[in-house]
Backbone:
C-alpha cells in the first residue's frame, strides 16, 4: 500500500513541483535574457548618439567655423574690390562657400537630430544674441553689445552665420582669455548682401 501511495501521489507531486520549478527558472532566464538585450540595445543607441554628437561638434568647430570665415571674408572683399572681374570671382567663391555651408548644415542637422527630443529645435538668429551674451555674462565674462546703423531685414542664413560667429568668438574668449571685456558689435548689412 505504501509503494502504491508513493507511485500514485508522491511521485506525481514531486514531478509536478520539479516541472513547475523548471518552468519558473526558464521563464526567469528568458526574462533576464530579454532585459539584457534591451539594456545592450539601449547602451548601443546611447553610444551611437554620443558619437554622432561628438562628430557634429567637431565638424562644427573645425569645418563650419572655417567655411563661415571664408564666406565672411570674401563678402567683405567683394564689397571693397574696385575691379569688376575680381569682384565677380570673389562672388563665385562666396557663393560656393555658402553652398558648402548649406550642405554642411544639412549634414550637421542629421547628426544632431538625436540631441533634441523632437529633432526640430529652432535655429538661432540675431534675436537670440542677448540670450547668448547673457550666458557669457553669467559665466563671469564682461560683455557689451553695441548696435550700429539702421536695422534692416536680414536673411535667416545670415542671421545664423552672424550668431555662430559671435558664439565662436565668445567661446574662444572663454577658452583662451578668461577674465576680459568683450564687445559684440552688430552693424547693418550692405544693401548688396543677401
Residues:
Amino acid at each position: 500500500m505504501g509503494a502504491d501511495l508513493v507511485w500514485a501521489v508522491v511521485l506525481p507531486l514531486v514531478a509536478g513541483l520539479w516541472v513547475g520549478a523548471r518552468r519558473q527558472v526558464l521563464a526567469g532566464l528568458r526574462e533576464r535574457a530579454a532585459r539584457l538585450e534591451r539594456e545592450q540595445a539601449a547602451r548601443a543607441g546611447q553610444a551611437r548618439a554620443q558619437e554622432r554628437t561628438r562628430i557634429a561638434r567637431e565638424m562644427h568647430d573645425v569645418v563650419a567655423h572655417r567655411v563661415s570665415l571664408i564666406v565672411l571674408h570674401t563678402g567683405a572683399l567683394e564689397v571693397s574690390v574696385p575691379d569688376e572681374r575680381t569682384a565677380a570671382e570673389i562672388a563665385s567663391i562666396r557663393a560656393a562657400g555658402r553652398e558648402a555651408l548649406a550642405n554642411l548644415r544639412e549634414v550637421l542637422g542629421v547628426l544632431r537630430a538625436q540631441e533634441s527630443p523632437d529633432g526640430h529645435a529652432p535655429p538661432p538668429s540675431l534675436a537670440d544674441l542677448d540670450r547668448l551674451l547673457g550666458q557669457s555674462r553669467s559665466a563671469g565674462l564682461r560683455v557689451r553689445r553695441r548696435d550700429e546703423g539702421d536695422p534692416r531685414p536680414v536673411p535667416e542664413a545670415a542671421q545664423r552665420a552672424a550668431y555662430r560667429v559671435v558664439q565662436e568668438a565668445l567661446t574662444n574668449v572663454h577658452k583662451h582669455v578668461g577674465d576680459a571685456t568683450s564687445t559684440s558689435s552688430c552693424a547693418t548689412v550692405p544693401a548688396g548682401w543677401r
